[in-house]
Amino acid sequence: xxxxxxxxxxxxVLVASSRVDVAHYFVSADRVEFExxxxxxxxxxxxxxxxxxxxxxxxxxxxxxxxxxxxxxxxLRDEALNGATKQWIVDRHYNAEWALSAQLEVLARQFDExxxxxxxxxKADLEQVVERMLRxxxxxxxxxxxxxxxxxxxxxxxxxDDPLVLVANDVAPAxxxxxxxxxxxxxxxxxxxxxxxxxIVARSMDIPAVVGAREASRLIRPDDWVVIDGDAGxxxxxxxxxxxxxxxxxxRQNELERARLNRLRHTPSVxxxxxxxxxxxxxxxxxxxxxxxxxxxxxxxxFRSEFLFMNRDGDLPGEDEQFEAYxxxxxxxxxxxxxxxxxxxxxxxxxxRMSIQELRHEHVLNPSLGLRAIRxxxxxxxxxxxxxxxxxxxxxxxxxxxxIPMVAHLHEIKLTIEALARARQQLDDAGRAYGxxxxxxxxxxxxxxxxxxxxxxxxxxxxxxxxxxxxxxxAIDRADDAVSHLYDPWHPAVLGLxxxxxxxxNDEGKSVSVCGEMAGDPAFTELLLAMGLRSFSMHPAQVAxxxxxxxxxxxxxxxxxxxxxxxxxxxxxxxxxxxxSSAGHVVEGR
Length: 590
Ligand code: PEP
Ligand code: MG
Description:
By secondary structure, the protein is α/β, with parallel strands linked by helices. 48% of the residues lie in helices and 12% in strands. The protein is built from 23 helices and 15 strands. The protein has helices at 32-55, 63-77, 79-92, 96-112, 117-139, 173-176, 197-205, 216-219, 241-262, 288-294, 319-332, 356-363, 373-379, 381-394, 410-430, 446-450, 452-455, 466-474, 492-507, 525-530, 543-551, 555-567, 571-589; strands spanning 2-4, 7-14, 164-168, 184-189, 209-210, 225-229, 234-237, 278-283, 300-304, 338-341, 400-404, 437-443, 461-464, 511-514, 535-538. Helix 11 runs parallel beside helix 14 (381-394), helix 14 (381-394) crosses helix 15 (410-430) and helix 22 (555-567) packs antiparallel against helix 23. The protein is globular. Magnesium ion binds next to helix 18. The site of magnesium ion has 5 residues, from helix 18.
C-alpha cells in the first residue's frame, strides 16, 4: 500500500521490529576506534554478568541453566559476532548498536536456514545475547549524545556509499517519530494500513514509504538495492539499470513538481467563485510547527498531543512540560489558531513501544474498541486535568482550540466539560493566566456523527476524523493489512455520514473541518467542497496540492453535482465524472 508519496532508492537495511528503536547513525572516521571499544566494552560487561549469574546459580537450579549460560557465553565470544560487527563499524561507519543489530540480522537469517532443529533454535539465544549487549550500550555513559552523533553525516560522507532504506516487519508510531533524524530515506513494512499511525507519521514527514508488503522483510536481503514507489505502493528489489534510471527520472520530476507547487505557498486559497477555504496543518510534534507555516497553512487543525506521551520510558509528561510544548507551538504559529487534541492513546498508538501484533495478541484483543482517547483520559482524571491545565495555560500566548477525540456518549461530553471547569478553577486558584479556549469534538465514531444535533450545543466546533470514521463505520481495522482492501473511504455509508455532519454543523453555524487523511487527498477535494466543507486540515506537505485544486474549483458547480455522487453505487466513479467535468470546464473557461 502506498503511504507516503515520492520515490526512494537505496540499499536495504533490515531491522527487526523490536530493534527499530536502536540508534542508527554514522560515526566519523576518528570515532571508529571509539565505537569498536564501546562494542567490546558491552561484550565484556555482558560476559561478566553471565559469568556472575552462572557462578551464583543456586544448587537446586537445573543443570540445563548452566549449560544455557555456557551457550550464551560462547555466542558472545564468537568471531562471527564480534569480528563481523567490528567490520560493520570499520567499513560502513555504523555506530556500535547499529553494527550489532546488522550482524544479528545476518546471523539470524543463517540460523533460519539451518536444517537442524536444535541449531535453528539457537537463534533465540543469539538474540538474547545481543539484546543484553544493546542494553549495556544504551546505559553506557559514553553513549553518543545527539551532539556527538554528527547527525549531518550521511552515507555519502563515507566514500560514495549509497542511500539506505529501512525494511522491517513493523514500525511502531513511537519509533516512526525518530525517523526524521535517522539516516534512512524511505521504509517498507510487512504489516500496516494506509491510515495506521505509522503511515500517518511517515506522510507527515514526507518520507516515501510502502506498508503491508507482507513478505518484504523475509524476501529482501541486506544491501539489496530497493526502489520504493510511495505513490503507487510498489517495491522493486534489485532493479535493472533501466528501471533504476526510470525511477531516478521520476525522483527528479517529483522535485520539480514540488518546487512548482511551492510557489503557491503565499497564494490565498480561494475558489473561482470567491469562497475562502481554510487550509490547516496536522502536526505530531512542536517542531513540526515551522513546517506548517512554511507550507502556507493558516493554523494547526490537529496537534496529535499523544506523541508527547511516547518514547518516555514509563513516565508521562507533567503539566509544565506539556505547557512548554503547547506554548512552543502557539508561539511558533505567530497568532494563528492552534487546535490541540487531548491525548489519543490506545488502539495502534500504545504508550510504549509495542508493535501492533504484540498489542493485539498479548494485551487487548481489540484495542481499537478499547480504552482509547477520551475514554482513557476520563479514566485517568488527574492526568486529564493536568493536560487541560497545560493547554489552557498555553492559550495565554495565542489562539488555542481544544479538541476531544473519540467522543461517542453524551456523558463523556458532560464529564469533559466538568473537567475543564475544574481545571480552570484550579488555575484561578493558583493565579495562573489562561485565555479563552474554544471546545471542539472529533466526529470519528458513527454514533457521534448520528448524534450530532445532540452534541453540537456543547461545542464551538467539530472536526471530522475520517480515518477512524471509516474504520468504525465499515468495521475495518485501519492498521490491519489483511483487510486493508476493504478500508474504503468511497463507501457510500462513509460519504453519507461525512456529508450529514458537514451539513448539520453548517446549518447550526458551527465551524466544521476534516482532519483525517481524506482532507489531504486531492481525490476528495471537490467532493468535500461540494458537501460544504470550508476548512481542511492535513500534513503540511499536502497543503500545496490541495490548494491547487481549490484554486481551480467552483463550489456552485460542485454543489450541484453532489447528490449524484451520494446516491451512486460507485461514488468514486461518479465523483470522477461529475467533478472532473466541472473542473475541466472551469479550467477551459479560464
Ligand atoms: C482520524 O481519525 O481521522 C484522525 C484525524 O485522528 P487519528 O488519525 O489520530 O486517529
Ligand atoms: Mg482518530
